[in-house]
Design goal:
With 254 residues, the protein is of the alpha+beta class. It is 27% helix and 31% strand. Strand 14 and strand 15 form a beta hairpin. Helix 5 packs across helix 6.
């Protein structure tokens, strides 16, 4: 994760270099996968245009590459999807297991995009260059044998939205983090100071900042939430705020 201006300056310089190379060599150029924080910083300098595209391999992707095109009609992308069928009857695995197996290969987090589990398979987006490496080396996840292959399809990660209300004494971020993470307000402030909270994909620095309507709050280890705004006040003058949380997978009934 890039948290300071020098890191963003280096990333911006890299993108500018790719842009110039694309224009000079008359061919497309692409970055590695950027997380949402990095994308938010780069979009201000390199906004989407007919010659600049942010692409994660499927609509709604969270991690994306910045692709510089030489011609507007160019549909270049070096992103591929690899999948592995899994049998979880005797050993269930989760997102952390998959991430741990990937990182054990000593690869950079920017070398792959979104990944998730659905319908007894693992779906992973990466570049054409890295796809063969993962297929050849990502053979076991939490003692479960897996075999990846390139998919002709580009599946879309499905989320369902859960809306809920939280009663707060204040709209300060430390109070909101405490309520969402189910910790004390002092702990919520500590999580902010430790860099574990982002607002609109940027690190939150001050616990006393106020949450705006429709802002996105990401809490490491807890989840991502969107503030829909205050809906009412209680008799004790506390604020009731409504939030939405996107949860991976189809919503289950019953």
């Amino acid at each position: 994760m890039m948290n300071d201006s020098s890191d963003y300056a280096a990333l911006a310089a890299h993108l500018e270099d790719l842009k110039i190379k694309s224009e000079t060599w008359h061919r497309p150029a692409a970055t590695a996968f950027l997380n949402e924080e990095e994308q938010a910083a780069m979009r201000r300098l390199f906004p989407e245009s007919p010659l600049i595209r942010y692409d994660g391999g499927y609509p709604g992707a969270r991690k994306k590459k910045v692709i510089f095109l030489y011609q507007e009609e160019d549909d270049f992308s070096d992103i591929v999807c690899i999948t592995a069928e899994i049998d979880q009857r005797f050993r269930a695995i989760g997102h952390r297991d998959v991430l741990g197996a990937i990182m054990s290969l000593q690869v950079d987090r920017h070398s792959f995009g979104d990944f998730w589990l659905e319908d007894e398979r693992i779906i992973l987006y990466t570049s054409q260059q890295m796809a063969r490496f993962f297929c050849d080396n990502l053979l076991r996840i939490a003692n479960l044998p897996v075999s990846f292959e390139v998919s002709a399809d580009h599946p879309v990660q499905v989320f369902h939205t859960r809306e809920f209300e939280v009663t707060l004494s204040s709209e300060r971020m430390d109070a909101i983090v405490a309520a969402l993470a189910h910790v004390s307000r002092a702990k919520g402030a500590q999580m902010i100071r430790e860099g574990r909270v982002q607002r609109n994909h940027r690190p939150l620095v001050k616990p006393d900042e106020v949450c705006d309507n429709d802002c996105t709050i990401s809490i490491r280890g807890t989840g991502r939430f969107r503030c829909l705004g205050a809906v009412r006040r209680t008799k004790k003058d506390r604020i009731v705020v409504r939030f939405a949380q996107d949860i991976q997978g189809k919503e289950r009934s019953g």
